[in-house]
Structures are given as C-alpha cells and as structure tokens.
C-alpha cells in the first residue's frame, strides 16, 4: 500500500484492528514511502492521541466531534504548550525527525475533526472557528444514520448530498480542507470535482478483495473450460 503512490495512508484504530504496537511498525513504512502517515483514533481520548503522535503520526482524525469544545480538546491534545496540552515524549517521532521535532511539531501536525452526526452539522461553524484545527473529515455512514438513512458510503440521497455540500461550503469559507470517506475511486473523483480535498478512495481490505476477484476472474478467462474443476470428483485425483 505504501509503495502504491498514495498521498497519505490512514491507520484505522477506530473500526480497524490496529493497536499501538502496529503503529510503531506501520508509521515508519508509510513515511519512508513518501506518504503522509495519519491515524484515526478510536475516540476523542487525549492519551491515545498523544501516543499516536509520539509513534510518528502527522495527522490525527478524531471521530464524533460534535461541538466547538470537542474540537478544542482535539487541537489541545495534538499541540505542545502554549498552544495545547500535549505532553512531551515523542519516542519514535523524534527518532524519525530529529531533535528539532519539538520546534516543528505544532506546525506540522494536523488535528482533523470527523463530522458524522446531525449535531455536528448544526455546530459546523463554531467547530471550524476553533484555532489550530487542521481540517474536517466527513464520515458518511454515521452521518446517514443520524439523518434516518441506512449506513453506507457513496451516498446519493438528495438530503445527504445537500448536507455534504453545506459542510463543504462552510469549510471553504473557513479556509480549511474538507475530507470525505468514500467507497470507490469513481465516487471519490466526483467528490473531488465538487471540492473535497482529503478523500479516502479505498481501504486495504477492499483493495485485497478487489485484487483477488480480478485475479480469479482473469485466470478463469485465460484458461477457459480447461481450468474448470471437476466438482463431481472432489477429493479424488482430478485434472484441472
């Protein structure tokens, strides 16, 4: 994944299986490949945010930000004093970026707030006004649930599309990037043309599934009937 040319890769600690030990392994690989290493933390928890940053994350995506106070807590957890309350001890981050890390971290780290509820949408202006916030990232599945729709990506409902456009317009007005979690590259391209600038195009699981299906399909097409298994003789010495 890191070698594929992505601008950034996000390690998902919220709905994914990654833990802190995984961060220590994965973040250096992502950074060495030239992609920006981001981490979605499981919740707005200052201790978890600190550890993810100490491990080398350059951006923190925090879920379920619903108010300006939530956004202030996120920013504060990401920044060293006097701008924030992050404790100093960047173990892996300092090894990777040198002894000047403390001098540059506040300017480099991106605190990104996930907007994924009706309450968050209603508070979007005050959230965007929080000093130090690096951007917004929309979670369409939970957002859809909040508006009474089934969860999922790549929304087409006019009501949800209007909400997305409203969030985007507020971000543009505030001069901050607006991101969106997408389920396909085609939908992501549509949203990029709309103005979204931090787009999740796919996931490692989706890439593996898609790649595996493509290989199986192309192999079957190339072999034709010669490769079809004799299902009547499963378990016996069978020619394929």
Q: How would you summarize what this structure contains?
A:
Helix content is 47%, strand content 13%.
User: In what order do the strands lie side by side in the largest sheet?
Assistant: 1-2-3-4-5-6-7
Second CATH tier, the architecture of the largest domain: Alpha-Beta Barrel
Low-confidence stretches: none
What structural class should be given to the helix and strand makeup? alpha/beta
Mind telling me the C-alpha Rg? 21 Å
* Total helical elements: 11
State the CATH class of the largest domain: Alpha Beta
Fraction in beta strands = 5-15%
Termini separation (Å)? 33 Å
Task: Write up this protein.
With 240 residues, the chain is an alpha/beta fold. The chain folds into 2 domains: 2-202, TIM Barrel (Alpha-Beta Barrel); 204-240, no CATH class. The protein has 11 helices and 7 strands. It has helices at residues 20-32, 46-54, 68-78, 91-97, 101-108, 118-122, 124-128, 140-146, 158-174, 185-194, 204-223; strands at residues 8-12, 36-40, 59-62, 110-115, 135-138, 178-181, 198-200. Helix 1 links the parallel strand 1 and strand 2 (36-40).
Features:
2 domains, TIM Barrel, 7 strands, globular, alpha/beta, 11 helices, 240 residues, 7-stranded parallel beta sheet
Topology overview:
Elements (H helix, E strand, L loop, with lengths): L7 E5 L7 H13 L3 E5 L5 H9 L4 E4 L5 H11 L12 H7 L3 H8 L1 E6 L2 H5 L1 H5 L6 E4 L1 H7 L11 H17 L3 E4 L3 H10 L3 E3 L3 H20 L17
Parallel strand pairs: 1-2, 2-3, 3-4, 4-5, 5-6, 6-7
Helix pairs in contact: 2-3
